[in-house]
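User: Can you predict the 3D structure for this chain?
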Amino acid sequence: MKKSLFSNFKLIFGISRRFASADRTSRSSVTSRLSVIGLCFGVMTLIVVLSVMNGFQMSFIDAILETQSYHIQVEDLAEDDDKLIAHCMESKLVRAFTPFYQAQTLMCSVPESAAGLSKSAVFESPAVIRGISPEVWYDDEGFRKEIMVVSGRFDLSDDGGIILGNQLAHNLKVRVGDKVNLFVLSGSSDVELFSAQRIFTVKGIFATGYQEINSSLCFINMVDAGVYFGKDAKRTWGIKLSNTSYVDREIRELKELLAESGAKISSWKEYNKSFYGALRIEKNILLLVVCLIFVVVAINIYNAMRRLVYERQREIAILTALGARTKSIQGIFITRGFYTGLLGSCAGLLLGILISLNTNAVFNGASKIVYFLQYIFTAIFDHQNLMYISENSTYSIYANIPARIFKGEVFMVFMFGVISPLAACYFASKNVLKSTLAEVLHNE
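Assistant: Here is the predicted structure, written as structure tokens:
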């Protein structure tokens, strides 16, 4: 049984190769080659677009996770700090964990001297102020990687120091060494809502890959947070994992561990639900648009295969007369579709990965080529405006986005490239025995 099955497959592959070699000059052959090229560029384009989009989105997500939201936050933890600390120390999934306080404030700049200054010299800006341990900068590698200090130092060892985002500092018109006041501050019942005495000295200014953080987030040490946020200020624990796919698993373990404490445990997706949802919608729509390439290629393959079936009516009728089954004859054309899909997808896979790993060189090269062509055409047809020709800065922006390749998405694109021509060939060859042997011989 196995031998006959193997012989049947061998016969189908052999006839399919013969058909392919005999069709090198026919119209169906030209369409088949164009289909391979279309699949190649479709797979390549989809892999590159997804990789660049992943890099673009993950640059925002990493900035949010590492500096603001963490992977998991544990709130309202009454007396089980020791349990949580012991669990985080022992767990191989936990990469970093730290407590922090957080409040909202309306911050304003403090003039060096009140005399001779108009009211407009004081600048205000809303902000989220977070009290953290000074050791976070040294212990949390992910935090240190995402926070780029553009001025001063990230040093919260002394009381009364504050670290501002660069856009927040710009809004307040302050620099390192200047003073700011937490004029309005949220907190517990013992905190004054308005005060002109909460003065902090700017120790450093930072920037991240997410502009909203740069314009709204600032840091003080936990001692100052305990003083100014009130005695009932809630301490939150932020936990970072080595792999985001284990968030749900870690949350289940923490809920079992802290079940008696009544702690509130949330994932980063809950804190950034609207932002994360917007990124997913953007990616899905882009994926749908690019997938139309495969639809067009599949239609071309379908038409090419129907033409091939028509051109091979004589051979099909002869094979039927010799005892070949319908499924075996149909398998000949499906095998050709498999060759087309495999060849185009493999070539597109290699090109897509190669370009994704070298997006910097690709976009910079494309920028220089476009600039050269624009320069040549302007020099020939509009020489007087030659001085205004320059490289497009948009290419440099894309070149600086680190593309990220996700294995699951690449595999999905590859399989879609293989399956789409298979499906097209299957439906095109369903009526493979439409003409009988007598009709074929009569036409001959």
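The longest helix spans residues 27-69. The chain has a mean pLDDT of 79.
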